[in-house]
Automatic annotation (TrEMBL):
Pfam family, one: DUF1993
Protein name: DUF1993 domain-containing protein
Alphabetical list of InterPro entries matching this protein: DinB/YfiT-like (IPR034660), DUF1993 (IPR018531)
Lineage: Bacteria, Pseudomonadati, Pseudomonadota, Alphaproteobacteria, Hyphomicrobiales
Top-level taxon in the UniProt lineage: Bacteria
SUPFAM superfamilies hit by this protein: DinB/YfiT-like putative metalloenzymes
Amino acid sequence: MSFHDSASPAFLQMLGALSDILRKAEAHASARKIAPETLLTARLYPDMLPLTRQIQIACDFAVKTCARLSGSEVPSTPDTEKTFDELQQRIAKATDYVRKLPPDKFDGAEDREITFPAGRDQTMTLKGQQYLSHFALPNFYFHATTAYDILRHNGVELGKRDFMGVK
């Protein structure tokens, strides 16, 4: 299996699932006359990031991971989304970016040295395989799962198939 096939499909599946669960969340809020901001700013615990930030970070991990693995310039995206529509646009842009990267740009990525920010004023360097398997994918799934959990905790009717993006 190519390195592209190890990365891109996983990101695309979950970005699609995040888009779908956001649609369900928006419909849930509308049907129950809940202000959208109630869900968009919801957190699982006071010291955790809100739903909007979880979506932004998940999108960033998909885009930035694929950029780094493909040897492309890492795009910068300001975190300005405050509505369901704006988050859907962010997901759509991330999906488009990941989908458009040519598979051959990932050739040799498993051995490529990947240097990335790791906290304030710190960087970390890992080989591509380690970066994808031990850092990028776990972080991506953490934020996607947390977004799902926030919505589920707030009464949005979601199940495992929604999380997995299976229709």
